[in-house]
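dude i think i finally got it to work??
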Amino acid sequence: MPPFHLHPVVLATLVILAILHVWVTRERHRRWRALTGWFIVAAVVLWPVGDLAASVSLSVATLQRLVIMLGVAPLFISSTSTAQLVAITRSPVVDAVTRQLAHPALALVVVTLVGTLTLSTPVVDAGATSTPARALTLAAVLGCGLVLWIPALGVMPGAKRLSPVGRAAFIFVSSLVVTSLSIVWIFARHSLYPGLHDQQALLHMTPLFDQQLAGFVAKIGSYLPMWAVAFTIFSRADESGVAVEESPLHWADVERQLLRVDRQRARARRRGTSSKGMA
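look at this
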């Protein structure tokens, strides 16, 4: 076990962010989800898990990222009400970005690329020696998780919502690409992360075994929870009598489409006025 380190700056930052998040959340059940999410974040970024993930163990770092991506991200999304999502995404730029990220194919590409990058050798080694680099990496992991769960939960206003069977299929496929480096870790003949050290002294395992263990942690840690969620989404829709092949439509989607139409008309009028002025 690494020596105890309080990390006061990190702890203070987490407390402030948690207070702000709970304060802007209205419903009681959503506040509990937000608070639970921040407690989980604190558990995996502070001593001892955070210290082990930072500079000692790849398997612990993999577990840390899976917890943030698969546990914290959906809690944060579900802690945000539809009205808040409408307000957050109302800006034309934010609306355009979130609309694209809600597309399953693009979401899979982003999750694969960003998830792989956060566990690449240069990024892990940089995080082992730099707190800012480590914080940016974990922020990217959280963002990656948000992108993953936006199509899976189908909550983004104005974005195409997948049917229950589509959401279940998306989650199943996502579980396969989230762990893109796991095969490399399992079959590598030597350790790929020189920035990680003291595995033998602190965890009683060699760096190579820790790396191989990380591969299995990535596989099991993504397959089991994501397949369980996919099955739950499909079975609940079937039990409630909802057509599992149909995409639901919500009033927030209708409002957002009307707002987009108004924006298109306004741009067309401005272009027409500009053309007349030039003539």
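Residues 126 and 132 are 9 Å apart (CA to CA).
im so relieved honestly
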